[in-house]
Write a structure and sequence with these properties.
By secondary structure, this protein is of the alpha+beta class. Helices cover about 40% and strands about 10% of the residues. Bound molecules: 3'-phosphate-adenosine-5'-phosphate sulfate.
Amino acid sequence: MPKTLEGQITMEKTPSYFVTKEAPARIYAMSRDTKLIVVVRDPVTRAISDYTQTLSKKPDIPTFESLTFKNRTTGLIDTSWSAVQIGIYAKHLDNWLQFFPMRQILFVSGERLISDPAGELGRVQDFLGLKRIITDKHFYFNQTKGFPCLKKAEGSSKPHCLGKTKGRTHPNIDPEVVQRLRDFYRPFNMKFYQMTGRIFGWDE
Ligand SMILES: Nc1ncnc2c1ncn2[C@@H]1O[C@H](COP(=O)(O)OS(=O)(=O)O)[C@@H](OP(=O)(O)O)[C@H]1O
């Protein structure tokens, strides 16, 4: 990590920290004042998205439905499958709370990041103690991509959309399997809402 001068913020990102057992202790040892930002989305959609990403690299993997279950007849979910495991947010958060207080952790809603990017970014700026520089003016909705894209407020440079690997079309998944996963995640989601004080609305 580069050294940070007074008035500067150093930021670093990786998708795997949140679910890595050793990460909280290591980050705490480096700087206990670190602020943590985590983007979370409906764990069922997250699992399907995760699978879609793997499928794009390895087209021969088994179906989503078969990977989801340890035993399809009994409906026993395979919690050791990383696509399922990662969405048990309450469990991962417990691990972080052994080292960091909730006030140092911000959870950003992946759904709101799409439907109201400026609103979510407003929360991020507040959390970091920054002036609200990024606002509605900085986003426009790209109909072709189906996602918001970033533009300079002054409109001088070209807008920036995220690349082709973000926003892939998901395969159709057996609705019964989706429902079983919804039932599986519900109690963990409820616990997560309670811990974070925010209702993410994944179970409505
Ligand atoms: N503005 C904008 N443009 C494109 N995509 C957007 C945007 N905002 C959020 N998303 C969602 O980001 C999802 C991919 O992010 P990941 O965290 O999975 O990416 S990665 O792990 O770093 O590859 C990706 O998930 P999928 O739709 O499943 O591909 C998108 O839903």
